[in-house]
Amino acid sequence: MNETPCKLQVALVMKDGSAYGGVITVGVDAADYSINLADLKSVNLVTLPRPYPGFLPYFFKPSAVCDFDISSVETIQVSIGPGIAADQLRAKHGIAIESIRLE
Length: 103
Fold this sequence. Notes:
Elements: E1 6-14, E2 19-26, E3 41-43, E4 45-46, E5 59-60, E6 73-79
Antiparallel strand pairs: 1-2, 1-6, 2-3, 4-5
């Protein structure tokens, strides 16, 4: 959206609140991107809407993380931030998503 490649974390969120994902670099042209299910790793689950009061944690941490089980996937979390260098976090980032498929 801003003519600059962008790192994007895509995660599958499980019924127990754990999340498994990976980071891809989305280019400026429309294309298909993929993450192999075997490459998914445990990632932070963002609590949205933002918890109030502000001292509550931004990330949800399940009490026990279970093994990845495709039949327990409930939703998808898409995040801009993970994988981006600290000095680039305040820069403008933008992507357009046409569709997400699980194959």
